[in-house]
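May I ask for whichever protein you like with its backbone structure tokens?
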Amino acid sequence: MALLAYNLTGAPVTLTTVTPAVVLPASGAPPALGEGVNVTSELRGLPAATYALLQTQSVNTVRYIWEDGVDYVTPGLIIWDDTRTSAALTYYVATTGDNANDGLTVGTPLLTIQAAIDRLPKKITHAVAIVVAAGTYVGDVIVGDFQLLVGTGSTSSAGGASITIQGPTTWTVATLGSGTASGTVTAYVAAVGATATLGTLTDSGQSWTVDALKGLFLLNVATGSRRAIVSNTATTVDIGSSLGTVTPGVTTYEIQKPAAIIQGTFNIVNNTGFANPSNCIIVQHVEVQSVSTTTPIASTFALMYVANTLISAATSVLLSQVRVVSTHLNLTALAVLNSTVQASNSYFGIETTGVVNALQVSGRQAFVTLNGAYIRAASAGSTGGAVSLISGAQFSTFLSNINVMEATGTSSAAVVSVVGSGPTTCRVPCGVFRGTASKVLLDIGPTSFSFSPTSFYLEGTRFETGSVGIKIGSSGVCRINSGFGIPSFSGVTTELQVDATTSTYAAFIALTPKKIVGDYGSMLVQY
């Protein structure tokens, strides 16, 4: 990695801690330095006029930290990394690897994912892949401070840049406490997005424990389609989207989990780039898991954390066929701050006594899209639900695939709560909200907050088991688009509540116009 140093002090500067020592001349072209381990986007000790000049010259100024963690940047000394990819690049990682290897072939893999990330230049102008072999990798992962550009790094619209971290596409067959993890389909009903009807696969010869398969994945062996399991009986499995062609008596299946497991936090932070649809950070075919159920992790609140990563207007980070399981006390499974994220055919779950949400989205530039995702909070804490949308966050789902959001246990939190300190817009064309008898399933503008307004668009959503189906307060607004399907309710005590006004859905749609306005300006409307 070619790090460059530009000396503005007017006198020679010697970096004596570098071996061999580097003498920076008082003026002239910036000499190259050796490799370091961390480059962060921070400007230190420079006058404002100098900073303005550097911005004009489009120089990426950074702080440079040597391996022992000491910051050697002095006032007037600018060090930046101007290297970028020159071609598509692939690094290989395996549990049998060595970080002294070059990592460029399957036969010379690196030992850790972070070692592969640290070898990448900070400016990405091509497709970069980190291919992770099967096995368990202990340690945190940070994908940070990258610029994803296009073409050769110019502002042309051609080309694209990406960083992909990928585990094996062949997953591990799960170990089950009862029944078997493979078999032949005896009956199959495909999912229907417009009515939020889950797909159901039946194997009449099985003897699974009810709901023991939640959060694992179901594979159609013939088509390769793999979907998260959202519930099961002794002989059936429910999923949220299509398994492709299924022929009873012929099609075989497997119940699986990813073969590459990361034990530690996974952070994607402070990445930027030219807004090109091809530019994206991709994580796929991996499991991220915590390793404790009793001790909080210091200085973090999320097992997978995506923050301040705005590369493409559509999707900056794509999480595809990812399983994130937090068994760590008070640790959110996935948190998104000021980033655009799509979670496709993935599972994010909290499976411990905790007081956090499985998915938390916040920030005015935060936009999460779910596509066949399963979000589950099995929490017995006083707070915490499946999804929490805060402070202007945006949220949407795909029409064709059903997204299941579920919260169980004794937590008082709603399954999905929406509160914004400014316009918060969410659109759910097909989804399932599942709770327990004491839970609010969808809470828009919770009354414990004074923020407003928030808006939620529903299209063909099902509400299953709860004290209140749709609760709207604090000037929140919920709009139901009947052209794409109407909501349905099962096992819900109070279907609709707008401020202090309660109603059944049947009574609501008998109104002309179909609108309820609460005492505090909250509103439910169907069109």
User: Anything to note?
Assistant: The chain is about 5% helix and 40% strand.
